[in-house]
Amino acid sequence: MNKVWLQKAAYTRILEETIRKMPCETGGILMGYWGNTGEAVVTAIIGPGPKAVHKRTSFVPDYEYDKKAISRHYEQSGFTETYLGDWHTHPYAAAYLSEQDKKTLKKIADFEPARLVKPLMMILGTQPFNLGAWAHTYTKRRCMRKPSIVPCSIELY
Ligand SMILES: [Zn+2]
């Protein structure tokens, strides 16, 4: 199973932001790096931007804000911490990948300019309370690239 290390301060920010926007969804960007052992390390979170749209069962990011914040963080980290994927909340629902979430994750994986090998999606559900994460990968079989989504375990550090 893939492992995701989540910085405690970043986790706290997710919790605070979740409560602030209840009963609407919120979300943002996961920043960090992939370690040598194939484990993702989330060092910080970004967002949501001021123009993000928060509704009870949907969240639309402020893409412009996110894009700028990603480059700023990348620079400030000495070009070591980059865009790993997205996070969002499911108020009064479980942490699971909805059909829309699966589509979004696939879109991130297929987004050429970012070239993410293994994009992540982290979801905080408040009922039952749980934080989940999934990684999107492509497995090569003969000449076909087969998309697959695998769950990750999360550990705070
Ligand atoms: Zn969702």
UniProtKB/TrEMBL annotation:
PROSITE patterns named among the record's database cross-references: MPN
Q: Which UniProt keywords apply?
A: Hydrolase, Metal-binding, Metalloprotease, Protease, Zinc
According to the record, the segments passing through the membrane are: none
Q: Does the keyword Hydrolase apply?
A: yes
Q: Where is the MPN domain?
A: 4-140
The answer to whether keyword Transcription regulation applies is no
One Gene Ontology molecular-function label = metal ion binding
The name of this protein is Mov34/MPN/PAD-1 family protein
- Native source organism of the sequence: Hymenobacter cyanobacteriorum
Q: What is the lineage of its organism?
A: Bacteria, Pseudomonadati, Bacteroidota, Cytophagia, Cytophagales
